[in-house]
Structures are given as structure tokens and as C-alpha cells.
Amino acid sequence: MSTQTVMVLSGPNLNLLGEREPEVYGAETLDDHLTVATEAATAHGLAIDHLQSNHEGELVDAIHAARANCAAIVINPGAFTHYAWAIHDALAAFDGPVIEVHLSNPAAREPWRHTSVVAPVAAGTIAGFGSDGYRLAMDAVAALLASA
Ligand code: DQA
Description:
single chain, alpha/beta, Rossmann fold, five-stranded parallel sheet
């Protein structure tokens, strides 16, 4: 069987990780998080693909492309989490497991962060564990793919 690929998607402002509000999001850069994700995926015999975009339509296009090429999606939609219904709809059209990841715990922050339009189309959400969230997400993906 060929190696299954997990599409890791990062939403707006996540390119600034390491510089952006380190007291909230930590000192790690997006590359540091991707290293964690890659190591965890490799341990499960999975490959990853990654796109970071500050533009909703680019993320929608990447989700459409993943329909043909990827077995699962791990997405940190950034602030799009809270209102981007086009991302919700694109994910609803993806057949494999979707895991929502947040570095911080939005439920413990401002009220406007308490709503996720992605959560209803995700298998589950991992929030508040920093980089470890990407490892936990890959563990969840591997378990869900194994039981599919
Ligand atoms: C975030 C949480 C969102 O509320 C915020 O807009 C982000 C990052 C997180 O990873 O904690 O950009 O998704």
C-alpha cells in the first residue's frame, strides 16, 4: 500500500509564530510545529503536506485538492475558525478524518473565540497543548485511519 498523506493546513497569522504574542502562542515557529508533526506522522508511517495561507480561498482550494491526494486533514484555521463558513463547507466535502488543532485554548479566551465553525465537521479538536497538539493530532489521525 502506498504511503498515506496528511494535509496540514495553517491559517492566517500562523506564519508569524515565534514573534506573534509569544505569551499566548509560545516561542516556537511554524517550522518547529511542522517538525513535530512530521516526526509524529513518520512514526505512524504517514507523510505530510503543508500549506500556510492568510487567504481563505487558498485554504478552500487546498482542501479541494486534498480530496484527491490526502487521507486526512489536520487544520489550525487561526481566526478563520470562528467565522469561515467556506472552510466549514469545503471540509464537509472531504471524506477522510479532519482534526482541528489550536495551540492555545480558545475556550479559555475571549468569548468570540468560543465558537468554532470547523468543529462540527471535525472528528475532534485538540486545543491548548502547543506543539504537542500536532503530535496528538497525528496519533488521532493514525488511529482513525487504522479503524476506517
Ligand atoms: C489559534 C486560536 C485562534 O483563536 C487565533 O485566531 C489564532 C490561533 C490557536 O492556534 O490557538 O490565530 O487558532
